[in-house]
């Protein structure tokens, strides 16, 4: 009987079989987004802080919509309204009801337009990686990694207004292009300047290339100059956002087979950026297992009660073993550095006021 069963099994694999496929199921265009509360640490439910970050809340985000996921950048707008941009060129948005863990007024929709296919055989893959917004005009700027293009869209993403295939970006790696972008506003003139960061294009003096645009980077006549950014060792920059007076927050990621995924958050001063020089930042927190961490790619800052609130979201790469999470932190104050040794009573220099150096020295 065993031999007969083996022969029948072999016959099943050897005899040609015709498979009949049914119709392709319709695409799931559901606009529903589910939010599931999560803890910060899997091994210590009481842990609520790391570095200068205090964990306030977190959610695992899911949707039946096949276009949901792949988050690469985000915006936090008024009234807890969030926009997420996926690397497939899809916009995801909702108003966050934190008390009830609900995504209110959600939507999932593609951008109205994007770069052309690289050739007639290529699939349409926009790979949108960076996003900034001007609340005064309602305009948005998007950086496309594979195509090395920067686009400007009108209010509500209604239409494309301008785009530039930036000459200085054309030798950047296809998978290491415009990963992050910052919009700087001149306090005197109100004019915009932009910083665009490559994830993987080496800079001759260390770190990776970045560009300073003295104007709108989507306009073809806007010139740019290079500088370098040195991320933490072994990490790559994934997003950046401005907060406070001359402060930038920068998000970095790393994956190794031994340690898995981790992320570093750091701060830096944009005023210290110089053309053809390397800009650096100071680490304020490291996220790594057993903390809830994935491929952290998106960053935003809001304010509550005079305190800075940091939002970080992950890119699941449309992979079933990864997840899309949104984490909320309070930014804790850093330690104040002493400008010099404390004064010793009775030891001030003759002729000097206590605590001050004499003029002319």
Automatic annotation (TrEMBL):
Residue span, Phytase-like domain: 68-318
Region (Disordered): which ranges? 335-361
Q: Signal sequence span per UniProt?
A: 1-22
* InterPro entries assigned: Phytase-like_dom, UCP031900
Pfam families in the record:
Phytase-like
- Alphabetical keyword list: Signal
Full protein name: Esterase-like activity of phytase family protein
């Amino acid at each position: 009987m065993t031999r007969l069963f083996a022969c029948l099994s072999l016959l099943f694999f050897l005899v040609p079989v015709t498979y009949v496929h049914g119709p392709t199921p319709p695409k799931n265009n559901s606009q529903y987004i589910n939010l599931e509360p999560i803890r910060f640490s899997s091994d210590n439910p009481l842990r609520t802080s790391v570095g200068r970050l205090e964990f306030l809340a977190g959610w695992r985000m899911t949707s039946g919509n096949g276009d949901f996921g792949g988050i690469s950048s985000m915006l936090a707008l008024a009234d807890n309204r969030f926009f997420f941009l996926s690397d497939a060129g899809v916009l995801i948005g909702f108003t966050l009801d934190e008390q009830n863990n609900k995504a209110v007024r959600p939507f999932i929709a593609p951008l109205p337009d994007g770069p052309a296919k690289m050739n007639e055989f290529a699939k349409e893959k926009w790979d949108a990686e960076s996003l900034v917004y001007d609340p005064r005009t309602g305009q948005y700027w998007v950086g496309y990694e594979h195509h090395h293009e920067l686009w400007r869209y009108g209010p509500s993403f209604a239409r494309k207004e301008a785009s530039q295939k930036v000459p200085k970006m054309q030798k950047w790696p296809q998978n290491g292009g415009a990963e992050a972008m910052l919009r700087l506003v001149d306090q005197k003139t109100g004019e915009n300047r932009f910083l665009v960061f490559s994830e993987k294009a080496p800079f001759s003096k260390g770190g990776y290339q970045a560009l300073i645009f003295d104007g709108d980077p989507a306009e073809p006549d806007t010139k740019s100059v290079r500088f370098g950014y040195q991320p933490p060792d072994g990490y790559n920059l994934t997003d950046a956002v401005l907060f406070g007076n001359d402060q930038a927050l920068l998000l970095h990621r790393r994956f190794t087979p031994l340690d898995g995924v981790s992320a570093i958050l750091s701060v830096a001063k944009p005023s210290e950026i110089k053309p053809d020089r390397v800009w650096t930042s100071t680490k304020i927190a490291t996220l790594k297992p057993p903390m809830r961490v994935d491929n952290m790619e998106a960053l935003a800052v809001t304010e509550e009660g005079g305190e800075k609130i940091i939002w970080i979201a992950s890119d699941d790469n449309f992979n079933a073993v990864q997840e899309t999470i949104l984490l909320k932190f309070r930014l804790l104050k850093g330690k104040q550095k002493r400008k010099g040794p404390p004064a010793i009573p009775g030891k001030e220099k003759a002729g000097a006021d206590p605590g001050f150096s004499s003029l002319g020295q």
